[in-house]
Design brief:
Keywords: Membrane, Transmembrane, Transmembrane helix, Transport
Main location: membrane
Bound molecules: phenylalanine, sodium ion
Distance between the termini: 50 Å
Structural class: mainly alpha
Low-confidence stretches: none
InterPro entries: Na/ntran_symport, SNS_sf, YocR/YhdH-like
Order of helices and strands: HHHHHHHHHHHHHHHEEHHH
Pfam family, one: SNF
Mean pLDDT: 94
Membrane topology: Multi-pass membrane protein
Shape: globular
Radius of gyration: 21 Å
Length: 444
């Protein structure tokens, strides 16, 4: 059977940008900037994004396109059976991450529904903390929303690459940019917004420390969807004529743009209302609604924000779902529809303990972490970095010639930074990743 392809270059870029732009940009990035000291973090982050993230992204897309297969077979084809274990790990990582990413995705649906049905009206400031707590610790409600989120993902992926994922991305990504632009303008015109802009943009180098550097590189990988097979899989449907470095630059650029805009949205609002920029994960779900409640047309603004968050999350989730679906279809000869439905159900079920871990199963711990945090810890600190290192080594050493041919379209489109890219894959990226792993695991 002929392998599916993206309908157009822009379709691939929007789908890959859809994968990259997610909760990582809008939820995690602003609170990391807040917690890690503003502008200094931003500078380090951008340096990693371009120097390392972009190189690994080029390698992942090239791996997928060269092998024309899911991550498991892709690693096998370029590296042999021994390397295929990393492909398997990538599929497992996508599975695990989606199981808890979808729980958070469910919260975004819950907030949209509650905003629409007036479930939030009458709340003020501090009450949102209790409200958020009540939602995520409930035994049933968040599981229903998690199920709804997975179901929407299944409905998109079941229609295939160009008919499902590409079509959805072409509608949702423009919507995402419109909502974001609207919200940024509102936030920047708040009285006292400027302090937030300053905090965001003016580097204070006293915040530079190993923790911050490790957080910046970890975030650069997560935000670009690297290390879990998403771009290997999306790359496997990319046409032979397209330039990989060019497409990758677009994806990195769009991802950075959204992160920066999210910073311009959230930090000015936080400063204008004298809230704490280092509030951590609750910044999005607690601090912001409390601010919205104070604004004229607050309900409408809140609706825009949580629709934005939902769109960002679902376009990322479908890229993870597609990794697992492609693997099941190709390795076990299952049809796309059946595979998508079954994978969706299994990931939904696997996500249930993550949801419960924030409430009734909070006491059940793995290495002193609840299940939700444990999965995040495992994937962030071990699986993602190992997957990224494996991709770099295959691209830089094991099959460099094949990768160079892929990246330059057999020499037809010279890539000016080919040598820099090669050495980044061979030496610099792996060393940087190992440093971050060692730092987060052993604290060195
Ligand atoms: N890149 C996404 C984000 O920033 C997260 C993600 C990781 C999505 C891996 C898909 C695959 O939120
Ligand atoms: Na991202």
């Amino acid at each position: 059977m002929q392998r599916e392809h993206w309908g157009s270059r822009i379709g691939f870029i929007l789908a890959a940008a859809g994968s990259a732009v997610g909760l990582g940009n809008i939820w995690k990035f602003p609170y990391l900037v807040g917690a890690e000291g503003g502008g200094a973090f931003l500078v380090v982050y951008i340096a990693f994004l371009i120097a390392i993230g972009l190189c690994v992204m080029i390698a992942e897309i090239a791996l997928g396109r060269h092998a024309q297969a899911n991550p498991f077979s892709a690693f096998k084809r370029v590296g042999g059976a021994g390397w295929s274990i990393f492909g398997l790990m990538a599929v497992l990582t996508a599975f695990l991450i989606l199981s808890f990413y979808s729980v958070v995705g469910g919260w975004t649906i819950a907030y949209v529904v509650k905003t629409l049905t007036g479930g939030f009206s009458g709340y003020s400031g501090a009450e949102f903390e209790g409200h958020f707590g009540a939602l995520v610790t409930d035994a049933v409600e968040p599981i229903i929303y998690h199920g709804a989120f997975m179901a929407i993902g299944v409905l998109i992926v079941i229609n295939g690459i160009s008919g499902g994922i590409e079509k959805a991305s072409k509608i949702m990504m423009p919507l995402l940019f419109i909502l974001l632009a609207l919200l940024v303008v509102r936030s920047l015109t708040l009285e006292g917004a400027w302090a937030g802009v300053e905090y965001f943009l003016v580097p204070d180098w006293s915040h530079l420390n190993p923790d911050m550097v490790a957080a910046a590189l970890g975030q650069a990988f997560f935000t670009l969807s690297l290390g879990m097979g998403a771009l290997i899989t999306y790359g496997s449907y990319l046409g032979n004529k397209e330039s990989i470095p060019n497409a990758a630059m677009w994806v990195v650029g769009l991802d950075l743009l959204v992160a920066v805009l999210a910073g311009f949205l959230i930090l000015p609002a936080v400063f204008a209302f004298n809230m704490d920029p280092a509030a951590g994960p609750g910044l999005t779900f607690i601090t912001l609604p409390a601010i919205f409640a104070e604004l004229p047309f607050g309900t409408f603004i809140q609706l825009c924000f949580f629709v934005l968050l939902f769109v960002a999350a679902i376009t990322s989730a479908i890229s993870l779902l597609q990794v697992v679906v492609a693997f099941i279809c190709e390795e076990f000869n299952v049809g796309r529809k059946a595979a998508t439905i079954w994978v969706g159900i299994v990931i939904f079920l696997f996500g249930v303990p993550s949801s419960l871990a924030l409430g009734v199963w909070g006491d059940v711990t793995f290495f002193e972490l609840n299940f939700f945090d444990f999965l995040g810890y495992l994937t962030d600190n071990y699986f993602l970095p190992l997957g990224a290192i494996a991709t770099c080594l295959v691209a830089g050493w094991v099959s460099y010639d094949k990768f160079a041919a892929e990246v330059t379209n057999d020499g037809e489109r010279p890539f000016a930074y080919l040598i820099a890219w090669k050495w980044m894959c061979r030496v610099f990226a792996p060393i940087a990743i190992i440093y971050v792993m060692a730092h987060s695991i052993f604290g060195v």
